[in-house]
Design a protein that fits this description.
Length: about 350
């Protein structure tokens, strides 16, 4: 089934006549073509991508499962949508992505009420198709190659901001389409900040350096974290590092289809708690990745639902000792009926840069 056909099947299941998509990400998912202004209309028997003159030629050639329609000043987006939705009464829309003011404007322009239907797309997007996984793996390989190159540059005196710039440059040079998010390249005491922002601090001998980064390929994101030591690592630094690694491996070992996100999180968190660092691990074990860097399902204590086969989630436990140092190790894994396939190939043993 095409993605449009999957959406149409969901419409029939939920007794909706149509679905109006207005967010760039969900439009891209449904039509397999990116636009930054427009909409998609999916009914039980048809589907249309509404775009303007900037995208019309490319969309006509590349969009999948839809008829491509060009709106203009003479016949704008809402007029086309109203015409295509003529005869449809139960129309779903994206309640989590469409601001309330815009929601009301769409209802006014269509002359009909909209119903919450975000779940249709969020559920479909949890299970990645082989093509989607291939794009994420390609992005991950680029990130890993950049990491290998960047290790040669990490030394005392290098600023955190310079490290972030070099990492971004090298991922782009290797074929990335842009950062999955602003890279986290922090050192020394700044590594105790899980989402620390790079500063002008210069790396020093004896520091941990944490690098959390990713790139994009064909619209799909990668995400990885590695923590390395510069010059030397103390016994305590090594103990914390090994604890985080064991926690990550425990969570990955627990992950498989049918297991809840909370159970995966608990498997990793227990290792950290048993080592006496439970108070220093405050975030979830992982999150899903795809067209967005943070998607559902989550591997966190809040997710009591079974993980589906085909989901791709991160495995990223950490220990953060305030004002001193922190360690995080992150891979991407694909959930299967029998376990988890690790999509990340970068080594995880502690690297001490001499």
């Amino acid at each position: 089934m095409t993605r449009i056909e999957k959406i149409q099947a969901k419409l029939r299941e939920q007794e909706l006549d149509a679905l109006l998509l207005t967010s760039d990400t969900n439009i891209r998912y449904a039509c397999q073509f990116p636009i930054t202004d427009g909409a998609a209309v999916v009914t039980q028997s048809g589907a249309w991508l509404l775009t303007d003159s900037r995208y019309i030629e490319a969309a006509a050639a590349k969009a999948v499962g839809v008829q491509v329609v060009m709106f203009s000043q003479e016949k704008d987006l809402s007029v086309w949508a109203k015409e295509l939705l003529d005869g449809c009464e139960k129309i779903g829309a994206e309640e989590d992505r469409l601001a309330w003011g815009l929601w009301k404007k769409w209802e006014e322009k269509l002359g009909k009420s909209l119903q919450p239907a975000e779940k249709i797309l969020s559920e479909l997007r949890t299970v990645k198709e082989p093509e989607e996984i291939a794009h994420m793996v390609a992005a991950q390989r680029i990130a890993e190659a950049a990491f290998t190159e960047i290790l040669k540059l990490i030394r005392p005196g290098l600023r955190e901001t310079d490290l972030a710039a070099e990492l971004t440059y090298r991922m782009m040079l290797l074929g990335g389409e842009g950062n999955s998010f602003d890279p986290i390249t922090v050192s020394g005491p700044n590594t105790s900040l899980p989402h620390g922002v790079p500063t002008d601090r210069e790396i020093q001998n004896g520091d941990f350096v944490t690098l959390d980064f990713g790139t994009i390929r064909d619209g799909y994101h990668s995400d990885m974290t590695r923590t390395v030591a510069v010059g030397h690592a103390t016994e305590e630094m090594r103990r914390v590092y090994e604890t985080v690694l064991k926690a990550q491996l425990a969570g990955i070992a627990a992950a498989r289809a049918g297991v809840t996100g909370a159970e995966v999180h608990s498997a990793g968190a227990k290792v950290i708690a048993d080592a006496g660092y439970g108070a220093y691990f405050g975030h979830g074990f992982g999150h899903s990745v795809g067209l967005e860097i943070h998607e559902d399902p989550r591997a966190s204590m809040k997710n009591k639902k079974p993980l589906p086969a085909g989901a791709v989630i991160t495995a990223e436990p950490g220990i953060y000792l305030p004002g001193r140092f922190g360690v995080r190790i992150e891979d991407m894994i694909r959930i299967t009926p029998d376990g988890a396939e690790n999509l990340t190939l970068a080594p995880k043993e502690l690297i001490v840069l001499e």
